[in-house]
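Q: How would the structure tokens look for this protein?
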Amino acid sequence: MATYITVADVDAILGSAWAPDDKKARAVLQANAYLTSLNLAGVDMSAIPEEVKQAGAELAVVASQGKLYQQHTEGSLEAKTVKAGSVTTSKTFASIDTTKSSSLPDGVQFALGLLGPWRTSAFSFNVYR
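A: Here is the predicted structure in token form.
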């Protein structure tokens, strides 16, 4: 796992009151794991850009609140009814769209926006000749 930010970095960016002291180390660890999972391309690890550090700080705040890896259970209730002759059947179920970025906490959405220049498309690949 790459280390994009440290607790000291987040304290410098957001001030020391961004999370209780006992949650800071784990929140930064989760933020670094999240950033590493994004496979950021072109980030110079010896001089990490300020935008990446800011994104990491935003992710750390969300992680300190327990929302970075939280499962979303909100959705909509849907019902479908089918009628064939005199027979009618109805089915009611919950539907959740996990592909929408709006289901992400606002801090995560902001961080992803900051990381735009370094994110690679899941549908792209490198070709070496």
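The mean pLDDT is 85.

The chain has one domain: 7-118.

Upvote if useful.
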